[in-house]
Design goal:
globular; single chain; about 100 residues; 434 Repressor (Amino-terminal Domain); mainly alpha; 5 helices
Length: about 100
Amino acid sequence: MDNREEAAAFLRSRRDRITPEQAGLPVYGLRRVAGLRRGEVAMLAGVSVEYCTRLERGNLKGVSGSVLDAVALALRLDDTERMHLYDLARAAGGPATQ
């Protein structure tokens, strides 16, 4: 099942709703986005910006549970949202367990 668009939209919407202040990050200068930048999510999740970009493009195939957990924590997902992220990853061929 190709659910890339749904996964991409889900991750972008969750990134957009968290401000740097809410994530405990300093804000320098003007920002073009109200939410977190990809680089900020990557830093919070402990993954590379390239990997974070791959995920946000909806490519969840083969993503480990530990990475999904780190992204869920960085994006402050609640239990329902976290389960949805895992469901999206499973449908794409990601981890089988949570």
